[in-house]
Amino acid sequence: MHLPDSINTLIVDDDQIARTSLRHILVRYFRNIHILGEADSVAEAIKLIDEKEPDLLFLDINLPDGTGFDIIESSVFRSYQVIFTTAYDQYAVKAFEFSALHYLLKPIKKPHLEEALKRYRPQSIDPLIHKKLDIFQATASGRPPEKMLISSMDGLQMVKINDIVRCEAAEAYTLIYMNDNKRYTVSKSLSIFENILEGRHFSRVHNKHLVNLKYIKQYHRGKGGTVIMEDGTEVEVSVRKKNIFMDELKLYALST
């Protein structure tokens, strides 16, 4: 992994054990990363950011006097990147995936930290950070967002969820097909998209295929059968998933 010669970092977390664990991994395995300080509150973090001017922030979401988002909104110095750290929570993880924010689940492990650091790029704060935070907060609060951010091979894309026709597994990647015939290649597994699109009229009809029920034109019977999408694509339905798919399709038809 190639990183800049020096990355100045702050750790913001109100859990001392979490801070100590992250610091230990960084010191032991990532010699190019220099820890300038640690904070356990919003107020202390803002003060440290403006004093130390870090390149990178490891930022917990929930702090005693506010949230990590308050820190981003309030710091005067803005030229830093952010990796959020959070304890496992299915709603938080789904919100992170919707918003394409970088995050690490606690307890943080070296391979996951290394993967997150590969995405580090020296630059000022993400120009889309406010839009990302809006999507995160909408998702985390239970409001279904109309759009999601995906990090594709071509860069960051904002897509309308209802415009996604289907998603297809391609080894470690997912191909996302849109209703305007655009296709995005995303370095996330299909299972991740199945999770974040749960409850949005998508059905996992096959290990390789997640389809938007809105765009199904026909279903052809068979052992498992196939569905014909409105773009003409024929997608196989696995025998194991057939009954669940048929139930989901019937419920969708009743709801529209």
Order of H and E elements: EHEHEEEHEHEHHEEEEEHEEEEEH
Proportion of residues in β-strands = 25-35%
Low-confidence stretches: none
Termini, distance in Å? 49 Å
The number of distinct β-strands equals 17
- Structural class per helix/strand content? alpha/beta
Largest sheet properties: 5 strands, parallel
The overall pLDDT average reads 91
Helix content: 25-40%
Shape: elongated
Strand ordering within the main sheet: 2-1-3-6-7
Contiguous helical run count = 8
Radius of gyration: 21 Å
Describe the 3D structure:
The chain is an alpha/beta fold and 256 residues long. The protein contains eight helices and 17 strands. The protein has helices at 16-29, 42-52, 68-74, 90-99, 110-118, 129-140, 190-196, 242-255, and strands at residues 7-12, 33-39, 56-60, 62-63, 66-67, 81-87, 103-106, 147-152, 155-160, 164-170, 173-178, 183-186, 202-206, 209-212, 216-220, 226-229, 234-236. A five-stranded parallel beta sheet has the order 2-1-3-6-7, sandwiched between helices. α2 (42-52) packs across α3 and α4 (90-99) packs across α7. The longest helix has 14 residues, at 16-29.
Task: Give a short synopsis of this structure.
By secondary structure, this protein is of the alpha/beta class. It contains 8 helices and 17 strands. The longest helix is centred in the N-terminal third of the chain and has 14 residues.
